[in-house]
Design brief:
Distance between the termini: 69 Å
Radius of gyration: 19 Å
Strand content: under 5%
Organism: Cytobacillus mangrovibacter
Structural class: mainly alpha
Protein name: CopG family transcriptional regulator
Shape: elongated
InterPro entries: Arc_rbn_hlx_hlx, Ribbon_hlx_hlx
Number of domains: 2
Helix content: over 70%
Order of helices and strands: HHHHH
Mean pLDDT: 78
């Protein structure tokens, strides 16, 4: 029974890390990540404020699960919403196709 309790205590003492924290720790040291996060958060806030003026239409479509996972990871890395990444990709595609 003590082994079970030891394992439970180990689990309780483990540090939980969010995906954003894990990605930030992989990229570099904590001070530079904090500076980068502050700058990127400010950029995201300004773009979000600008995008509030845009009228949007809710759509539904099927997407392959592997693409969805990659899209979620990229959204985490760039600290943007998934719909913003999709809009940017569609805008780029439509400009290239003209």
């Amino acid at each position: 029974m003590s082994k079970v309790n030891d394992i439970k205590n180990m689990k309780r003492n483990q540090r939980t890390v969010s995906p954003t924290q894990a990605l930030a720790e992989i990229v570099g040291d904590k001070t530079s990540n904090q500076e980068i996060n502050v700058v990127s958060n400010e950029e995201n806030n300004t773009t979000r404020k600008e995008e509030k003026k845009v009228e949007r239409k809710r759509v539904s479509f099927d997407l392959r699960t592997d693409l969805h996972k990659e899209l979620k990871m990229e959204a985490l890395v760039q600290e943007k919403n998934i719909y913003i990444l999709i809009e940017e990709a569609l805008e780029k595609y439509l400009k290239e196709s003209k």
